[in-house]
Amino acid sequence: MMKSSALLTLSVALLPAANADVYMHNPRGSNDRNCERNVNRNNGNRLFDSQNNAKGGYACPRAVGDANIQAEDGTGTIGGETQDKTLYYYEGSVLPVEWTNQHGCGANSKVNCEIVIQYACEDTLDPQVDNFWPFTDTKNNDANVGDQAFRSGANLAAPRDGIPTDANDAATDTIPDTEDAAIPDTNADQRYGMHESYDFYQLCQHTARNEGLYTADQRVRRNDQRGTRQNPNGNRRGLECPEERDYYPWWQPSPWVDAAILTNDAGATACTDPDECETARCKYYLDNSFNKAAKGYCDVNHNNGDVEDKTTSQAWNNREWYNNKDDCEEEGFKWYEVALSDVLDVGYPVCMKTGFSRVNQLGNSFDATVNGTDDAPFGVNANRFLWTIPDIPSVVTGATDSTNAGFEIADDDDYFTGNADGAMEDAYQSCTLRVRYNLSTSDFPAWPAEAMEDAHPWKGLMVTAENNTQNNGDGDATPLQQDPYIYVGAGDDNSVGSQFVSLAANTNQYARTFQDRSYRFAIKKKPTADAAADNSADTPKVNDMTGKTGKIYNVNVRGKRGNIVQTYPAVEYDFVPNSLALDEGDMIHFQWQGSDYNPRRGCNDAEGGPPDPNDGTSTDAQNSRADRSNIVFMDFTAANIPMDYLGYKAATAEDDDDNPSGLNYNAKVAMMKETMVNNTPCGGDADCFDSIIRLSYLNQQSDGGSLGFRDEEDCLTEAQLDNINNQQERENHPLNCAKLNAKPYPYFDGGIMNAK
C-alpha cells in the first residue's frame, strides 16, 4: 500500500438520495453545455463532472457558425470586420459571481455547506515555465523546453470552449485522451473543449490515489487518482482529475487559483490572512491554499534526469506513481515542493461566511455579511460572492530554485511569453471560473484536527481509511453503510425480532461535490490612455483611468430566452447586479453576452432576435433562438415604460408632419442632453449622452460588422415594420433594429459610465 496520510475530504456527508445541484448564472455557467440547441445538454462528460441536472446551464456565447464566424480567441469576422467578442473584466473591478444551489447553505441547521471559487488562465492550464510542474512525456527537460506543450500558433489550447465546425455542429464531444486532440491544429481538434490539460490528466491517471481517505463501503476500482469515493469506477469527464475535484484543499499542485472559500464555519469578518482568521476552519483553508502553501510531487531530477525513467517505470505503468516523499526517495526519485507564489505574486484567497438559503430550492439567499450595507441594501439576492477581479499577477523574476524544483526565472518571458509577446497580459486573455458546492449532514467527523475548534467534541476524530468497510464485509468501523437497516423497535414479543426500517443512503454521495464552470473570459489592465470609439471594431470610447480611485462595478445580463418554467434551472433575463449604490467617481462597466443557440422561444415567451439561420437580410416565421439585450433607463424601478429621453415630440408613422417639434438635429441633441442631466447616473455630458444612446440602440446604426453583414441596408422604418403582417416575420427580421436584430453577435460592450 502507498504510504499516504489521512487528508481532508471537502466536507462531511451529503443528505442521502438527493441531487443538490449548483448552477452558475453570472458569469454564464455551461453545466457542460456548448452549442447544442436542445433543452437538455448533449454530454455531461464534456469538460468536467458537474453532478447537475442535464437541463441546467447556458449555451455557448456566440453567433451560429464555425471559427470564421467566431474563433476560440473571441475574434469575430461577420460583415468583413475583425471584432473581439470576448467578455472581459478590468483589474480591481467588482464582479457579482451568482449561483443557485439546491440543498441550502449558510447558517442552516439542516446542512453544512462549503463553496470554493477558483479561476485558471492559460499560464497554469497550458504552462510554459520549465521545471515547476511535474514532468510528462510532452513537457520536461528535453521536450517543449521554454514552450507551451499544446498551443498551436494563434490557436488557443487551454482553456478553450470548443468551436463548431459548421452551423449544425454542437461541438459537444468529450476530448479524446490523446496529445493530438489536445493540440488544436485542425478544425476537428478545435471543436473539443479543454480546461485541464492532457498533461494534467496523464499525471492523474498514473499517480497513486490517496489511500488514507475514508471511502466507506465503496469499492474504489482504480489505484490512481481517478478513483474516489464519489467516482469509484474512475470515469473520465474531460481531462479533469477526480481526486482534485472531490477534495479541497488538495495535496498536490493544481492549475486552479483560489479566489474564495465560503463556509458556514467562518467568522463574522472575512479574512485574507490566516493569522487574522477568527475560526480554525478559515485558518486551515488559507494555510493550505496552493496560492501560498507548498505542495509536493515525485519526479526525476529536473536538472539531469530522464523522464523515461519515470514514464517507463513499473510504478507509472501500474498507475501507482509515488504520491509521498518516503516512497519517492526510497525508489531513487526526487521529491519537489512548490507553491504558486514561488513564481507568481498571488495572495491568499478570502474566507468568509456563506449566505443562508433553505433546502430543496434553487432560489435566492439571505447574505448576512452584506445585509443593510451599500453592497446589498435589501439583504436578499441570489447566492453570490462579490469578487474583486485580481490584478494580473506579476512574475517573481529572479526566482531560482536549484535545490528544489529547479526553475529559473530571469524575466517574465521565462514564465510565460504569450502569443503576442504580451507575457502575463496574454495569459489572462483566456480564463475560466469554477464554483464547487459541497454540503453535508453531521453524521460523522470528516475534518482534521487543525480545521476544528479546540472545544469541538469531534476534534481529532476524523474518519480515515481505518473506518472503511473491509472486503470481507466487516463494517464495524464505518459510521455509514449503503442502504442500511435502522432498528426502531424491540419487536412485538419475545418471539418476533426487532422492528427496522430501510434507509436510502448512497455512500458515494455522502460528502458529495457539485460544480459549474464559466465560458472563457479575459482580465485586462485598466486603460492608461484615451481611445476613441471604433465602429469597425465595435468598441466603445475608452478613457484613461490613471489616478482614478472610484470602484468599477461590472453590470452584466444573466438568464436565457424563455419563461421561468422553460429556462429552469437556469433563470430568466435580469441585470447582475440589479441595484447599485454608487458614490461620485465610481464607474459602471456595462457588458453582456448571450447565445444564438437557445431552444426556439417566441410569442409569449420571448420576442425579437435575428432568425436562425441569419443571413443579415432575410426573415422567417419561426420562433427565434437568439439572446439580445439593451439598457433603457426608467424614472423609477416599478415602472415598465422607459423615461422620456427626448424632451420634445418625435415624429411617428401616423404623423403627417415629419418634424412636429420644429427643432433641427443639433437642437434635438441639446434637448436630450438637458433631459438626461438629472435622470441618469452620468449627468448628461457628451460622454454620458453617447453612452446612453449606445446602451439603448447597441450601435446598430454604425457597427461596421453589422453594416457589412446586411449589405449596408438601413434599419426598417416604423412604416416598413407595420407593413409586415406576420408577427413572427416582423419581430425576427434582421433589419428590425427596434428588436435589436441588426446586431449579429449576442455580445455587447457598452463601455464605462462615470457616476456623477
Notes on the structure:
The protein is built from 17 helices and 24 strands. Strand 2 and strand 3 form a beta hairpin. The longest helix is centred in the C-terminal third of the chain and has 12 residues. The radius of gyration is 28 Å and the shape is globular.
Span between termini: 67 Å
The percent range for strand residues is: 15-25%
The overall pLDDT, averaged over residues, is 91
* Number of helices in the DSSP assignment: 17
Helix content: 10-25%
Principal-axes shape call: globular
**Uncertain residue ranges:** 1-19
Q: Give the total of beta strands.
A: 24
Biggest β-sheet, characterized?
A: 5 strands, mixed
Calculate Rg over CA atoms. 28 Å
Query: Largest sheet, order of strands side by side?
Result: 10-7-6-16-19
Structural class: alpha+beta
At a glance:
The chain has 17 helices and 24 strands. By secondary structure, the protein is an alpha+beta fold. The protein is globular, with a radius of gyration of 28 Å.
